[in-house]
Amino acid sequence: MNLGNDRFTLERGIAAAPAAVWAAFFDPKARAIWSPPSPDEVFEVLEHDPRDGGTGLHRCGPKSDPTYMVETRYHKLDEPASVSFTEIVRKGDMPLTASQVSVVFAATEAGTRLTLDVYTTSFVGDGMLAGTKGGWTTSIANLIHHIESAS
């Protein structure tokens, strides 16, 4: 096993109230728009139950072959202030990564300060660590664009 770990934090300002950011973050239709990191990729929500103890399941990857399955377990939600969840990314039966994710939606004078904190373990090497960080970085940028262009 080629085990690797990474931790990163993203902090971004968004010109919208925390409730609006929370709504876009959890709305499956909105997430299908902002979550793919490129136009050549897709994000399909298959199950969606964002509550304490709830689960989610989505498929993502290239539009031509979205082979990655992501299992989410929500541990604690405090709407619209914060959420903590874990994600396991699989390809077929093979687990690729496991992540602990925390997101804080803090009110500011300008709208919201989103702080995303991710700790990831890769079971297949550093490529998946870079992919996790790059995917979240681009997705959060897309989320901001999605919210601010709608206002």
- Strand-and-helix sequence, N→C? EHHEEEEEEH
The biggest sheet amounts to: 7 strands, antiparallel
The end-to-end distance, rounded to whole angstroms, is: 47 Å
Helix content: 25-40%
Number of DSSP strands? 7
Count the helices. How many?
3
Our estimate of the beta-strand percent is over 45%
Radius of gyration: 15 Å
The spatial strand order of the largest sheet comes to: 1-7-6-5-4-3-2
Which structural class fits the helix and strand makeup? alpha+beta
Q: What sort of overall outline do the alpha carbons produce when their principal axes are compared?
A: globular
- What is the typical, i.e. mean, pLDDT? 96
Low-confidence stretches: none
Keywords:
single chain; 151 residues; alpha+beta; 7 strands; 27% helix
Describe this structure as you would to a colleague.
The protein has 151 residues and is of the alpha+beta class. The protein is 27% helix and 50% strand. It has a seven-stranded antiparallel sheet with strand order 1-7-6-5-4-3-2. A hairpin with a 6-residue loop joins strand 2 (41-48) and strand 3.
